[in-house]
Specification:
Elements: H1 2-9, H2 12-17, H3 39-50, H4 63-71, H5 73-84, H6 93-108, H7 119-132, H8 139-144, H9 148-165, H10 168-175, H11 183-191, H12 203-210, H13 222-239, H14 243-255, H15 257-280, H16 284-288, H17 292-302, H18 309-314
Length: 315
């Protein structure tokens, strides 16, 4: 309790040393925290923001950190799936995700290619994309309008180019001949044919790898995809991980619950700030009033007879 009081009575720069980094602009002195109704709630909110996992850099993430984040993917996916729910006749995100990362790879991944990809497979992958990320209501209608035989021919031509030249951008140019298939969806179709090296052009992957976690606007063009592929290659070579696993880690980082909590915490923190500032500028008579928190701290200190006043100051 003595250490607690000393901490609260020290200037804000000392609180920074304790790890609460962003509280400095809230109050000019930690003494003001005693007049805030929930001082530690405010501090904890800013500590959580400062230590947000989105600060994990793709250039610095270790293999252990990467694997820990990867292990969280199933729980994050389940949470997103539960939030979106399932409409009549639709598959859940979890079922679609199993097709995306297990069944599709078993059938189409490099070294396997058990059977050719059909239009129904393309539609299932597009459905996964719509549930996994942003929903675009007209996309499925466009994809469904493709001729089944023509779709298989386009996939075959694209894979021949990829197998011969390993040129992802040239391969995407062929895949985008299909109606409703843009560069992002085309990268998904190619990714299930080479999960180790080819990454799906997902928002979350681009934000984490190319935007330092910031949700910047994306143009979905060849230049941006080359940039994404370059970052993926660097991370793959450094940690010896698969591109499909990089997708999952990026999804975990960009979809984590802490992101939502921070946005909800913003308003209460502002109120606490206003409360602290109004207290600091109050008339002299009101300034003399001692809060309940301060009284409790004083009473707790007085109840320790074994400590002299001089020793309390040194603690």
């Amino acid at each position: 309790m003595v250490a607690l009081r000393n901490l609260l009575l020290q200037p804000y720069r000392t609180i920074v040393e304790y790890g609460i980094r962003r509280v400095t602009f809230l109050v000019s002195s930690s003494r003001t925290l005693l007049r805030i109704k929930r001082p530690f709630t405010v501090c904890n909110q800013y500590h959580r923001m400062a230590s947000s996992p989105t600060n994990v850099s793709a250039n610095k993430v270790s293999l252990d950190e990467f694997n820990q984040l990867l292990a969280r993917y199933p729980s994050v996916l389940q949470r997103i799936s539960d939030e979106k729910g399932v409409k009549n006749g639709q598959k859940s995100l979890e079922v679609l995700d199993e097709f995306r990362y297990i069944e599709a790879l078993d059938n189409f991944d490099a070294g396997k290619r058990i059977r050719p990809m059909t239009l129904d497979d393309i539609k299932t992958l597009v459905e996964w994309k719509l549930h996994h990320g942003k929903f675009r209501p007209t996309l499925m209608k466009l994809v469904s309008s493709n001729d089944p035989d023509g779709a298989q021919d386009v996939i075959k031509q694209a894979l021949e180019i990829y197998d011969e030249k390993a040129d992802t951008v040239a391969t995407l140019d062929v895949l985008t001949r299909l109606r409703g298939i843009g560069p992002a969806t085309a990268s998904l179709l190619l990714a299930v044919h080479d999960a180790s090296r080819v990454i799906f052009f997902a928002d979350e992957a681009f934000w984490w790898l190319c935007c330092s976690g910031k949700q910047s606007p994306i143009k979905y063009n060849a230049k941006e995809y080359r940039m994404l592929c370059s970052e993926v290659d660097d991370l793959r070579n450094r940690l010896a991980v698969k591109a499909s696993d990089i997708e999952k880690v990026a999804y975990v980082l960009m979809k984590q619950p802490e992101q939502t909590e921070q946005s909800h915490d913003a308003a209460p923190v502002k109120k606490e700030k206003e409360s602290a500032l109004s207290t600091a500028t109050a008339p002299a008579k009101k300034r003399k009033a001692v809060s309940k928190e301060s009284k409790k701290v004083d009473e707790a200190i007085k109840e320790q007879p074994s400590l002299r006043r001089s020793k309390r100051v040194k603690s």
